[in-house]
Amino acid sequence: MVQLKLDPASPIPMYLQIVEQVRRAVACGGLKADDEMPSVRALASGYLINPNTVARAYLELEREGLLTKRRGAGTYVSHEAAGLREAQRTRIVGGLIGQALEAAQDFGWAPERVRKAFEERLNHMGTERKR
Amino acid sequence: MSQPAIAVQGLSRRFGKRAAVDSLAFEVPTGGVCGFLGRNGAGKTTAIRMLMNLTEPTAGRALLLGLDARRHHAELMSRVGYVAEVPILYDWMTVREMARFTSQFYAKWNAAAVDALLDRFGLDQRQKVRHLSRGTHAQLALALAMGHDPELLILDEPATGLDVLVRRDFLESIIQIIQQEGRTVLFSSHLVHEVERVADQIVVIDQGRLLVSARLDDLKEQAGQSLEDIFVGLVGAGRGTEVRQ
User: Fold this and answer.
1) pTM for this one?
2) Which of A10, A117, A124, B81 sees the fewest Cβ atoms within 10 Å?
């Protein structure tokens, strides 16, 4: 079962926190096709949050195609989720790179400097891995 | 869209020159949990008392479950549950006696549900009300308010004075209560953290006036801020540095 870290005091709406974490779990392979999701009721009482919030998150994830409802049998990770996984990964990494680029832009870095910083980081990661 | 569980329309109450509640208007959709936020003295209790027909409005009206709160008071009492800021419980009664006493005011009473709630809260029914802690006192009031299986539950500062653990229990019971589909809860608080876990709608008032009524998620998405920051921003706006202390 997926472990969620929910923070009601965060500026990020609760339903979005659930959506993001399920997306991530699918992207990392923590959730696979046919895995059963906890019911709205169970998740709401488990995390002490409003069931409407959980229902909204599930609806959003169904719309994205990550989750699917089976009649009378609960909510499952969909078969399309595996296919969507690559898209999720691209989206998540892309989003983070976007954030880094925004910061660089705010600091007025030239593209050349950004590229250099990025490559240094990549090389550093490479050496860390080999160790 | 189905009719809202609560529709407040231009509700006002003056005490002498002072407007305790001033042209208040908002709606709470059926099945939602509304956190009614404001600082101490913002007018929350006066507004709630008008919803419950305990205080007469100077102007405007409130509809509960589509019915005028004043004209349909009797019917509403059988369909709405209410826990006052200071619940009136009789000290000399035991918990069991208090439950039986309360049940006599209602045509329909679910004793099994009340027992189950009291068990969940760990209340000993033989105990005298006088000997209950503040937290269990509030839990007893909540359990009794649920006895007639209300469609709408109105709670005035239900968790004030409860310690952290009891408050968690209390929130859990509110969640249990709203699991039943179509049931609506409005609860007031001056504590942001109490509200943001369970509420899906937020109504903020200050000096008797409405500052905002919105879905909590939308509010956060639009502001990009925590509810606490939003609240301080809203309530602090008209007052300069007073709020910061």
Assistant:
1) 0.80
2) A124
